[in-house]
Write a structure and sequence with these properties.
The complex is a heterodimer of chains A (about 220) and B (about 230).
Chain A (H helix, E strand, L loop, with lengths): L4 H9 L7 E4 L3 H4 L11 E4 L3 E4 L22 E7 L2 H9 L5 E5 L2 E3 L4 E2 L14 H7 L3 E5 L10 E2 L14 E4 L2 E6 L2 E7 L5 H6 L5 E2 L10
Parallel strand pairs in A: 1-2, 1-5, 5-8, 6-9, 8-10, 12-13
Antiparallel strand pairs in A: 2-3, 3-4, 6-7, 10-11, 11-12
Chain B lengths: L10 H4 L8 E4 L9 H10 L4 E4 L11 H5 L3 E6 L6 H8 L4 E4 L2 H12 L4 E4 L13 E4 L2 E7 L3 E12 L4 E2 L8 H7 E12 L18 E4 L14
Parallel strand pairs in B: 1-2, 1-8, 2-3, 3-4, 8-10, 10-11
Antiparallel strand pairs in B: 5-7, 6-7, 8-9
Helix pairs in contact in B: 5-6
The chains are: A alpha/beta (about 220), B alpha/beta (about 230).
Chain lengths: ~220, ~230
């Protein structure tokens, strides 16, 4: 079975470490916040200028001056800090964020990522995505392995305009956990019940399959 | 003589000198931390041909969306513009020139502009449409794009607290682009929620020193929320 959105978030959460500062993108990455292991201290960064993002507020505590990068009202945890967007991106660009999780339309064997623009469709802008992929060393991209027609989104070369060139090393799809190195996708794990054959068939870029591909433990 | 007192008594005085074809920076992220009254005053002046620099373009009936509706903006420099139907329409018809800029690069271009740095190299955008036509350089094996700084004729800023000398304190995520923009305007105008006398703000707690601020006005704010989300 392909992973659900929640299972994708759950698998990503296994990559968290105690004391990590983490930036979670919009969509599936946001769900990772629900799976932070008990007792682990992780601080969430929101690139508009907040370190230590908490849960959504109540009607009583809602504050128009306190929002996340998705423009949703949020709260701040004890130990949080606020700062300008310039300081926020200095933090990101300077490589101080331990883990970044974001979505994508396509990735390729060289670690390039396309996530912001589909020619012919309305372009809304890249927001902070280009800064996040260029600045962070430890990035996990969460995405669908193929589109509804079965066309692979893991390509020899991205076809859509890039968000970043050669900057992605790890991809978690609904079918597999993959490392990108030496110009190829390397299969690390497969989703429970998904065959290596299906993953290979749905991967358009060069893929390296080791002898033993373990199932993900969720 | 006003000395170091930056306080002005009216929105007309706050935006005196704003004219057609100028470049205006407007603070805020979405609708959070925008100088509401100064935007309303820009609409009132009827100036046209503006280049607006702001992370977003407001919504249809609030924020910079008001200036788009009245067709006063020619060029928009922003990172994300998804929430505004007027914007989409004017962009698709070619009426509006849009320069999409990565959020962190936009913030740093403004910071650099205020700090007298004409341009800087960043890895952000290398190999993407953002780098097209720009100088690139390899430094220690990594590729970088040269990004020029931004300044403006007017910078319109919203602060939480100000003293009459223009020392500013921002609140929570309403800071966003406001602190950098305050440094990058030829004329920086601040709309504050609270104005106090010099000495009432702790000098250790001031985010933006008054040297950057030219005019200060007491504002009243609706503080509209774009995505009202509460705990289930």
């Amino acid at each position: 079975m392909a992973l659900s959105r929640e299972q994708l978030a759950q698998r990503v959460s296994q990559e968290l470490q105690d004391g990590f500062y983490v930036n979670l993108g919009i969509g599936i990455p946001t769900l990772v916040a629900n799976y932070i292991p008990q007792g682990m201290e992780v601080m969430l960064q929101s690139e508009n200028g907040l370190l230590g993002m908490g849960e959504f507020p109540t009607e009583e505590t809602i504050d128009a001056d306190l929002i996340n990068a998705g423009k949703q009202t949020v709260t701040a945890i004890d130990g949080a800090s606020f700062f300008s967007s310039a300081k926020s991106f200095a933090m990101i660009r300077g490589g101080h964020v331990d883990l970044t999780v974001l979505g994508a339309f396509e990735v390729d064997v060289n670690g390039s990522i396309a996530s912001w623009m589909i020619p012919g469709k309305l372009i809304k802008g890249m927001g902070g995505a280009m800064d996040l992929v260029a600045g962070a060393d430890n990035i996990i991209v969460t995405m669908m392995h193929a589109d509804k027609k079965g066309n692979s989104k893991l390509l020899p070369v991205c076809e859509l305009p890039l968000t970043g060139y050669g900057c992605i090393k790890r991809v978690l799809t609904d079918l597999a956990f993959i490392e990108i190195k030496d110009g190829a996708f390397h299969l690390l794990e497969r989703a429970p019940g998904v065959s290596v054959e299906e993953i290979v068939a749905k991967t358009a870029g060069k893929i390296v399959v080791p002898e033993n591909v373990p199932e993900m433990q969720l | 003589m006003a000395g170091l007192n930056k306080l002005v008594g009216s929105y007309e005085a706050a935006l005196e000198g704003l004219s057609n074809d100028m470049t205006v920076m407007v603070g805020g992220f979405g609708l959070c931390g925008i100088p509401e009254g100064l935007i309303a005053q820009m609409v009132k002046t009827g100036v046209t041909g503006l280049t607006a620099i702001s992370n977003n373009a407001g919504v249809d009936d609030f924020g910079l969306g008001l200036l788009l509706k009245s067709r006063q903006i020619d060029t928009m420099i922003a990172s994300y513009v998804g929430e505004n139907a007027t914007f989409e329409q004017q962009m698709l018809s070619g009426e509006l020139n849009v320069i999409l800029t990565p959020q962190g690069t936009l913030a740093e271009k403004i910071r650099a502009g205020g700090a007298g740095i004409p341009a800087f190299f960043t890895a952000t955008g290398y190999g993407t449409p953002v780098a097209e036509g720009k100088e690139t350089r390899e430094i220690d094996g990594r590729h970088y794009v040269l990004e020029p700084a931004l300044t403006a004729d007017f910078a319109l800023v919203r602060a939480w607290k100000a003293d009459t000398m223009g020392n500013l304190v921002f609140r929570k995520t309403a800071a966003n682009f406001n602190p950098m923009m305050a440094t990058a305007g030829k004329i920086t105008v601040v709309e504050a929620e609270h104005i106090v006398a010099p000495g009432e703000l702790d000098p250790d707690h001031i985010h933006t020193p008054g040297i950057y601020v030219d005019r200060l006005i007491q504002g009243t704010f609706e503080k509209r929320i774009e995505q009202r989300t509460v705990k289930a």
